[in-house]
Design a protein that fits this description.
The structure holds two protein chains of two kinds.
Chain A: H1 2-34, H2 54-61, H3 63-96, H4 102-114, H5 117-131, H6 137-162, H7 165-173, H8 178-207, H9 210-214, H10 224-229, H11 241-263
Helix pairs in contact in A: 1-11, 2-11, 3-6, 3-8, 4-6, 6-8, 7-8, 8-11
Chain B: E1 4-12, E2 18-27, E3 32-36, H1 43-51, E4 58-63, E5 66-67, H2 73-76, E6 78-81, H3 93-103, H4 108-121, H5 137-149, E7 155-159, H6 167-184, E8 187-192, H7 195-201, E9 204-209, E10 212-217, H8 219-224, H9 229-234, E11 241-248, E12 251-254, E13 257-260, H10 263-272, E14 277-282, E15 287-289, E16 302-306, E17 309-312, E18 316-321, H11 331-343, E19 352-357, E20 367-372, E21 378-380
Parallel strand pairs in B: 3-8, 3-9, 6-7, 7-8
Antiparallel strand pairs in B: 1-2, 1-4, 4-5, 9-10, 11-12, 11-14, 12-13, 14-21, 15-20, 16-20, 17-18, 18-19
Helix pairs in contact in B: 3-4, 3-5
The chains are: A mainly alpha, B alpha+beta.
Chain lengths: ~280, ~400
Amino acid sequence: MAAVGRTHATRWGVINVVVVLYALFPVWWIAALSFKAPSTLTDGNYIPRQWTWENYRGIFKTSEFTRALINSIGIALISTVIAVVLGTMAAYAVARLRFPGKRVLIGMSLLIAMFPPISLVSPLFNIERILGIFDTWVGLIIPYMTFSLPLAIYTLSAFFREIPWDLEKAAKVDGATPAQAFRLVIAPLAAPGVFTTAILVFIFCWNDFLFAISLTSTRAARTVPAAIAFFTGSSQFQQPTGSIAAAAVVITIPIIIFVLLFQRRIVAGLTSGAVKG
Amino acid sequence: MAEITLEGITKRFPDGSLAVKDVDLDIADGEFVILVGPSGCGKSTTLNMIAGLEDITEGTLRIGDQVVNQLAPKERDVAMVFQSYALYPHMSVRENMGFPLRLAKVDKATVNSKVEEAARILDLTEHLDRKPANLSGGQRQRVAMGRAIVRDPKAFLMDEPLSNLDAKLRVQMRTQISRLQRRLGTTTVYVTHDQTEAMTLGDRVVVMRQGLVQQIGTPAQLYDLPRNLFVAGFIGSPAMNFLNATLDGGMLRSPLGDLPLDDRTRQALERQNAPREVIVGLRPEAFEDAALSTRPSRGGPVFTATVDVLESLGSDAYVYFTAEGGSATTAELEELAADSGLRDTGAEVQQIVARLDAATRAREGAPVELLVDMAKAHVFDPATGANLTHPESGA
């Protein structure tokens, strides 16, 4: 019995290690590149012979990268907050209320999510230029919100549906106004859903390249993924490989921090014990 | 504390279905009233309308001397215990019980002392800092009760609060609720589908069916003087036996033989213009083992039945037998059979049950002579279901 359990565990252990290696290998490669000196960049070693911070110093020397980083953080955070707040309210309505046109509304939001962004880039480019929001934060926040809201509504309404309606009735009878019932009872229970959604939306905004490259033209609103594409080597004969690798590592860090911070809040089964299950 | 008055309360859902129809009910201050009936009879909807969780389509609802039709639940000052308990899972027991008081902006010291007091009454003191997820079903039920009693509301509304507990705990909690209500003297409306709970808990019981009130009365009134077939069949366990019978002068020709009517019944039937074909209802205790009868010879008609099953409970013996020509069926009785069939699976609806003295010599498969106490017989009109022998019927 114990032996069977052990071989079973070993088999899964091996599979896990293979999967994790497969996923992390490119990450390791880019990290290794970012620590290599320009002369050894192409020596084909997976482990740098000579460790150097030169690439990192390089990208932080000019304001081009730091400015892009600020743009990225600002735009992604604002889009996430707006999408989650609107998404929470919409999802609550979708989960709780019966109103005419509910199915149409859900269908429409799905439709938006399914639209290939590439087909919208040209019209958006023209619209934003006419409206004067081309190459501004708002010009990126609006499309990010539009594309992440359906996702937010979907994820959140699933969480809201899990919360027993009796809790809300109980809160009302206990003397809560609808707003208090939502704030004191429903929202805390929906918190894991809100954090999950926030992470997904943030990652979507943070990683976007298409809108960032099409709807910006200067450093005023250019985010990191777009800015990296504009990196140049120190001479026109040199590839900016080291800088790109360093920048790629740097922009991964906020995502990792964001996920680690909120992961603890995503506790499954928070609602257990509310009603007899 | 307050009286609750329902006047012509009607609930029609947006899809047009009528859930509750024209309910009139006066609940006195401090009274314990039970709404009982099979599922879908409108009892929970009625309770939700009193709580303010459902809109009232028509009629007037008063709590105290205030019309509350348009008031939100929080302005009605009633507390509710839900079948699911509806405890807030992210709050400790203490926070759960104090929640209504905190919403009412009561100061912290008072909240604490009230919660501690309620916890002491309900024996929850040692669990105050635990989360609902770590409590047993019975403890959760008590927390739900505690949340209701801390704020001293005008009324308690309970929606099948015991139906999620196992049988033994349910009986315990039943007596506890009864004791608590008596001690606090708070007006209570209690919804259940279990007639035993209704009979044991209530000062008065309201029997509902398909959105209509069938009868309102004390448990004894419902048991002894049911107004119609439905109430007669719903109240009492084992249920009343129903037999098809034909009225022939002073005689009831039934599958058990000819049953002579006593004067009271005969007069009542004449007054009512009873139809020839009727249904006769006999509770299990209307039968008696003729061999053990101490009554004088005029005690009543005697017939012989072959015992199918004998259940000896020590205090009593239940004898099951079938009668030629069988039990009566009407829409009401079909509904009851379907409803109870869920509870007592495999029960033979066609059987007649008699409750005999434990000293009976009846044996399975052997015949037994049974005496019928005609003073306890009810006669129903099969078309309307009305109890023709009820002293007030038709009057």
